Amino acid sequence: MNAIRACALALAVALVDPAMAQTTPQTAPPRQTEADAYTRYELLAPGTAKFRIVYDVTATTAGATYYFNPIRAGSIATDEHVSDRATGKPLVFDVVGAAVARAGGVRVSDSTQQYIRVTLARPVPPNGGEARVLIDKTYEDAKSYFTDGTTIVFNRPLGIKRNAVVLPKGYELESCNYPSQILQEADGRIAISFWNNTPAEAPLILRARPVASMATSTGTVRSSVQARLEERAVQSREIVYFLQQPETHAFDLYHDYTESRPGTDHYINVVRAGSRVSNPSARNLDTGEPLRLDVLKGAAITAAKLDIGEPVAPTTEIVVFRFAPVAPGATTRLRMSETYTDSTRYRVVGNELVWDRSFGRPANAVVLPAGWVLANSAIPATVSTMPDGRVRLDFINPRPDDIAVLITARRR
């Protein structure tokens, strides 16, 4: 009865003064989140101020059906194409204003900002699922790309952490102010690629000049040391280690990997010598579905006729994750989870935790066990504290080599 009276009173107040009527507060939409962004800028003909942008990004907000990509102020966008990385098929998109983006979960500060709104192929799966999008567009921006006599200049602060800029054919790099890989592509063009591992924008300034030998090259260009010339920034493998208490020598991990080779239907993880693996699991991050797997050792590997890239010994152990064959033009994003035990690389000495392990991937993270204070990290890392109080260290290695990560911690 009290509830009925309260509703009647509210209705009466609203009839007398509508401004006093209380509306039900609407829940703010989940904030748009994203990961694994990589941008490739292809400079078009000098004097046009135009450059093609190929933007590879992952939407990570669980349940999201749209992704919003801002159009930079001062740039004129044309020739937009958007596709789903999982299937390679086109996606529907349109251009919307700040109000629509805000309603979709974007935290908008500029009411004049415009966005490309992409309709995702499927809602982002829960529990770390992803929706991978490829946006292809052409910008015209005379402030970023211009000529200075016969020299071309690309002067543009880049907020995305992984980038490549490709010079027009027939041009050599004259200068670059940001540490980068310099890689010649198969068609002869020079690419400048880098991973920005700082929290700020990269204030990139490139200058390039015409050179006859570049302009006249035809056919496929391949270096005699091509196997060592792999672009680092485009790599999207990442791994996170969650350390259990050091007396156990155990740590949980997950490893994210994108498979793009048509027809490939499995991934092999070779267990490092001295380590033991348990509790393996895997899923397709694009769909959320779990994957089948097998743990094989020694003769069982040989009997399965699996190429693991190294000789098979009786003690060799692998985990084989199986998935649907990758279709032409499609890719599959996988997350493999396991628990490892390794008393050599993860141990406790007195009251000191010691983690001593080399990392070969560009992106790696280590989460200390609860109750431990970070004391030393031999390799530079970004340090943060998780909501549950555990310390996390993120290591970004922009170079194509391993880093010998050595961490120590002490009990609180």
Identify the notable features of this structure and list them briefly.
412 residues, mainly beta, Immunoglobulin-like, 2 domains, 4 helices, seven-stranded mixed beta sheet, disordered N terminus
Q: What number of domains?
A: 2
Structural class category? mainly beta
Shape: globular
Mean residue pLDDT: 91
CATH topology of the largest domain: Immunoglobulin-like
Number of DSSP-assigned strands: 28
Keywords: Signal
Signal peptide: 1-21
Q: Would you mind describing this structure in some detail?
A:
By secondary structure, the protein is mainly beta. It has two domains: 34-228, Immunoglobulin-like; 238-411, tricorn interacting facor f3 domain (Immunoglobulin-like, Sandwich). It is 8% helix and 46% strand. The protein has four helices and 28 strands. It has helices at residues 2-16, 98-103, 212-216, 299-303; strands at 34-43, 50-59, 66-71, 76-84, 93-96, 114-119, 131-140, 145-148, 151-158, 162-166, 171-176, 181-184, 190-195, 202-210, 238-243, 250-259, 266-270, 276-284, 292-297, 317-322, 332-341, 346-349, 352-359, 363-367, 372-377, 382-385, 391-396, 403-411. A seven-stranded mixed β-sheet has the order 4-7-2-1-10-13-12, with no helix packed on it. Strand 1 and strand 2 (50-59) form a beta hairpin. The longest helix is centred in the first third of the chain and has 15 residues, at 2-16. It is globular. It starts with a helix and ends with a strand. Residues 1-25 have low confidence and may be disordered. Keywords: Signal. Residues 1-21 form the signal peptide.
